[in-house]
Amino acid sequence: MSAEKILPNTFTFNSAISACEKCGEWQQALSLLQDMVSQRLCDVISYNSSISACEKAARWQEALCLFQDIPAMRLLPDVISYNAVVSSCEKGGRWQEALQLLSCMPPGMPNVRSFNAAISACVRAKASAAFRLFEEMSENSLTPDVISYSAAVKACETEWLWKEALGFLHQMRSESIAPNLITLNSAIAACDKAGQWEVALSLLLGLGAWKLQADLISFNSAISACGTSAAWRMAVVLLQRTFSQSMVPNAVTLNAVMTACQRGREGSAALRVSSSMLKAGISPNQITFSVLSEAYAAEGSWTKAISLLKSMRQMHFPANTICYCHTVEALCKAWRPVGARRFMNTLSELALSALSLMWL
């Protein structure tokens, strides 16, 4: 434009910033905004697009600074400005800032999106605040949507409130609001954490009634619920269903099934599951090794327990005190006092190393 002696105006600048926002170029968006400020061309739309660019890039501090600059430019933030900055605080895990911004909105300005962003910001850190905000929506004559309910059910998951999660699902049904897979996965996970495997299974099997198809997250949560209640046979059945539905189980699936078998005192079944899934190319993690070592300890397989520690080193996994404890247990069961003492010494060194790191 400059080469043709045509100077950019507010519209062209805003269009460019909006394009940067959509492409994830938040730094370029801020550079363009700075040019607008120097030329006195910026308006609230310019700031809104720039804040949204920062939000999508998870740059909550920059978004907050931009929002605070709006009054200095003798501009009034609108609902889009507030929603964008609250959403940026949500993505940055800044629930207190999100609540403060929501409370600063003029009466009648907050909409469903404002509350949804604030509720989502509180989900992991302050579930009680999320529930309170959900109730405030009706007080502000706003009707919660599926995003509102999904965030509320997610808050139930973080606090293991399975009955409350079911209550929100019942409320959705009465309001003729269809839950999505995110909503129901959170409800299944809430049941998992509360050890309610039968309820979790019922929710999983009931997904079809909502015309939804379970994904691996759904199955992993249901299998994990079986693990907390030692319902190992059902865990294995669910594992088989993942294969029948052309899913590819991951380490979370493997660990959950193994844990269910182990808690059901079926260590041999846990080992069979691990063997078949590792052959399928599923990469283990620290939890996998911990559950395997527990199974070896239960049956006194000290040679396998030691081999497992060697495999961990070869795969560059850090020393795991749980695995060492299980190895000592396996050696003791096999009446191998010398080996047990040697691994006890190693375990002591690991414990001292961990303590020294805590004091750094």
Largest sheet: none
Overall number of strands: 0
N-to-C series of helices and strands: HHHHHHHHHHHHHHHHHHHH
Using the alpha-carbon principal axes, give the shape. elongated
Q: Label the structural class.
A: mainly alpha
Number of helices: 20
Distance between the termini: 57 Å
Mean pLDDT: 87
Radius of gyration: 27 Å
Strand content: under 5%
Helix content: over 70%
Low-confidence stretches are 354-360
Labels describing this entry:
single chain, 360 residues, mainly alpha, 20 helices, 72% helix, disordered C terminus, Mito_RNA_Proc_CCM1, Pentatricopeptide repeat-containing protein, TPR-like_helical_dom_sf
How would you sum up this structure, described in words?
With 360 residues, the chain is mainly alpha-helical. The protein has a domain at 1-73. It contains 20 helices and no strands. Helix 7 runs parallel beside helix 9, helix 9 (146-158) packs antiparallel against helix 10 (162-174) and helix 13 (216-228) packs parallel to helix 15 (251-263). It is elongated. PPR repeats lie at residues 9-43, 78-108, 145-179, 250-284, 285-319. This is Pentatricopeptide repeat-containing protein. One of its GO terms (biological process) is mitochondrion organization. Pfam families: PPR, PPR_2. It comes from Cladocopium goreaui.
